[in-house]
Amino acid sequence: MAMSIDVFEKEVYKTLDEISNNSKKTIISISKIVSGSDWSFVIKVHALIESSLSRLLIAKTDDVLFAKFFDRMSISQKVDLLKQLKLLENYECTFINNVSKLRNKLAHSPDEWNFTFKKHFKTMTETEQNVFINGLCLTDKQKPGVELVELFKLKPKYAIWISANISIILLNNREEIIKLGKTINDAQLDESERLLKQHLPELFLKIKK
Fold this sequence. Notes:
The protein has 209 residues and is an all-alpha fold. Helix content is 79%, strand content 0%. The chain contains ten helices and no strands. Helix 1 (5-34) runs antiparallel to helix 9 and helix 8 packs across helix 9. The longest helix is centred in the last third of the chain and has 44 residues, at 156-199. The radius of gyration is 22 Å and the shape is elongated. The relative contact order is 0.14. The model has no long low-confidence stretch (mean pLDDT 80).
């Protein structure tokens, strides 16, 4: 069945609604975990990002059977694969990999259960602090803006919260756009078949024989 202009517009607006709703859900989800400890915040942000990466990979492959395979991949492997598929920018990879490194440091050492950003900064030199901040501020520029750096120094959790929101929203948006593209491609195939049946019905009679 051919996709009419009305149906096409309906699919586009449906996708835009999904993008808007997912963005709101992301902000709500991450907002809920800001009030917890710094340790739990990093662990949960990492989990939310990894979940979005997996969903994007499933959308790209268009097969939920790959879900178990993607679940066995490390987050760095997912990032590398999505980068090769041109679904992640370099600055996004840097941010996600740095969140992953911090998460692994916290998750694999019992001594880190009382981790706080404030305490963590005290053990760093100014250069180390700048490297740490630059790696966890999501930006397509070479260096994050002064405002974001200052926010990171004063309230690092909220600076990461901003970057994590942007990261997850970008991932979710790409997932919805891929789904829309597949819907349009399916409609184009249906339309092509309809036109062939209309103008060259003998082709389908031969196939049936």
